[in-house]
Specification:
The protein is mainly alpha-helical. The protein is built from five helices and no strands. The radius of gyration is 31 Å and the shape is rod-shaped. The two termini are 51 Å apart.
Length: 148
């Protein structure tokens, strides 16, 4: 019996291979999950870039509106006949309306940006498989026992 427990005995070799194989499998699994996260984050980055473009457009339009407001005020001082400022005022109001619309579109697009949902789901599956429990709570959720 003491021969069986001695270090370096023949029974240790398969166990070492199993442990090495399990570690290699875990490394591949973690690398795959990191790769999935990169792919999902790249998609979110594209949506964020679009949102940034819309918000930048809103700022440019608001800035242009500000310039027209200044020109309108200048023409109010020199208006003769049908006031020129009225035309510039309509253009200014239109530019601000466009800025508001672009800002609302940007805010709406920002609300649609999601995190790496599939990656989180895969990590939760891995945690459940490693712990041997099929009902492991998802990342960021509170277990029902902790709510009471």
């Amino acid at each position: 019996m003491s021969d069986r427990l001695a270090p370096g005995s023949g029974d240790d070799v398969p166990l070492k291979k199993l442990i090495t194989s399990a570690i290699a499998d875990m490394q591949r699994l973690i690398k795959a999950q990191v790769e999935l996260a990169k792919i999902e984050i790249a998609g979110s980055a594209q949506a964020a870039a679009k949102t940034g473009g819309l918000l930048t457009g809103a700022l440019v339009m608001a800035g242009t509106g500000g310039l027209f407001l200044l020109v309108t005020i200048a023409y109010v001082l020199v208006a003769i006949g049908l006031p020129v400022w009225a035309g510039f005022g309509i253009v200014t109001a239109f530019l601000f309306l466009v800025a508001v619309i672009l800002g609302l579109l940007g805010r709406s697009a920002a609300k649609k940006i999601k995190g790496p949902e599939r990656t989180i789901a895969e990590i939760n599956k891995t945690k459940a498989a490693l712990s041997g429990h099929a009902s492991t709570p998802a990342i960021g959720t509170v277990p029902s026992s902790a709510r009471d």
